[in-house]
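Reproducibility note. Readers wishing to regenerate the assembly model reported in the main text can use the exact inputs given here. Chain order matters: entities are listed in the order in which they were concatenated for prediction.
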Amino acid sequence: MQAQLIALDWGTSSLRAYKLGPAGVVLEQRSLAFGIMHLPSEPRDIAGVRCSDGFELAFDAACGDWLDAQPGLAVIACGMVGSAQGWSEAAYRNTPVDVASLGQALHTVRSVRGVDVHIVPGVIEQVGLPNVMRGEETQVLGVLQDLGAEVLIGLPGSHSKWVEVVDGCITHFDTFMTGELFAVLSKHSILGRTQKVSEQFQGAAFDRGVQVARSADGQRGVLSTLFSARTLGLTAELTPEQQPDYLSGLLIGHELAGLPTGARDLPIILVGAAPLCARYQRALALCGFARVSLAQEATERGLWQLALAAGLTQPSLEA
Amino acid sequence: MQAQLIALDWGTSSLRAYKLGPAGVVLEQRSLAFGIMHLPSEPRDIAGVRCSDGFELAFDAACGDWLDAQPGLAVIACGMVGSAQGWSEAAYRNTPVDVASLGQALHTVRSVRGVDVHIVPGVIEQVGLPNVMRGEETQVLGVLQDLGAEVLIGLPGSHSKWVEVVDGCITHFDTFMTGELFAVLSKHSILGRTQKVSEQFQGAAFDRGVQVARSADGQRGVLSTLFSARTLGLTAELTPEQQPDYLSGLLIGHELAGLPTGARDLPIILVGAAPLCARYQRALALCGFARVSLAQEATERGLWQLALAAGLTQPSLEA
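Running the prediction on these inputs yields the following structure tokens for the assembly.
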């Protein structure tokens, strides 16, 4: 099947490349460790030019052979590749944004082989506390087909995003530093000293953490409940193996308690790694959120939609 | 002036020794780096016995000469020296506790020179989420003279404690991991990467952090506001030099938002290092707490009161 688009999901720690066919179907995909903070450095010839630029080298490794085989293919990319530390900075676009407006705002960088890479800009919200995202906007736009007028899309991770979408438009979003906080507390704080990592998910401990976050104690805030991850160990109510999942449930519970009022009435779509989404799904159920579903292939679908809006490719007639 | 008591404030990272005279007046004091996690290890003769135990060596370094000069002196100690990782474990006492009940519950360890060291037990609260402290109970009991029936005592630090006292009795307390969270976020998270430490206190940035914590945004919780310490840098609203104090104000503001309802109506006493107490005093004023004062010499006064209650020393007639 003839390829129609190369789509790159290029973040801080990894680079995923998709060769997409008619209607955006995935023909081939690759995952490389060449995130923007881990670029290759060994000089190499690309299209007859000696090249030592890490972005060029990573780009060539990801899809040079696809371009050799089909030179006219369009290329679109999202994620931190468009940040100030990326290949070329794609300035943030203000909310509200939708597929059409973002697709028309792609930022172009020309690679040494003469191919233009079209980079999706990140999104900034400047109403109230400023908030930014790069990459998540593409995932959000990738899951919007067949959804109702108003949805809330959760993207759990180091910096979880919760994105409100109205009529296909990203209108508002929040960032919760839940994943990174879990990591630094487990690795560098007193809480980590009594934790023992278990192979097995400790469901009861996780649930207890969620419940504490939504209890009267939890309303005093996470700074106040955190220490319980230690004291419940001291009082033998949590084993060392249970403490990591208790802390995970506690932090996720506090995150969910911070969702906008009205979130409970919206359909919620989770986008992200399956094990993490499973934790959020469990916590959402405990907190009484009833309409939760999971989305797949959000990034590649979003990149396809944006490439369509930009005129980089055509909707397939036979789709 | 004749000494009446040796009082040790023996924590994780430091050991402070006080030689107290009549009425608990401080005759001499020392600060050593020999916290329970940093004990000396070089073997030495103590009272004619070859000794390699770190607690014995630190104890001798702190007050061996005082005991040589006045062998009958009583010794009292508080802090992590009584923890499971300390010299000898002094089991936690349940709330409520006061000077009399805690003074009668001292735990004794006999040093190699034949002197008994009387260790103040820590305090545990097991109503709701468990909470523990070791050392802070002594500071609290040291500042209770001349106070009203109900006070709230704040002890800012790595693990800030807020202790409610009714009629001289510790009835309830909370722990906020504010100081440790500030440290691990600054050192190990993405927030630290754009921070630049400034010699000068950035008051406006600190105040802004406090205000965000008590704003409508702040009510969504600290997990949600944390990222603003980065985004306000991205939007050039905070310089790199302002970001650390913004984060400090933000976290302290969230801590204060988590104080018990009714805290606003109580007199508040702050106990701790002067620069940190100054930050809390500033934040408390911004948050509308009117009756705030600072206490001095809380530990040595508390140890004196507990030694009196234990009968280890006598109140001075001429005091």
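We highlight two features of this model. The first strand of chain A starts at residue 5 and ends at 10. Chain A has two domains: 5-128+300-309, 175-294.
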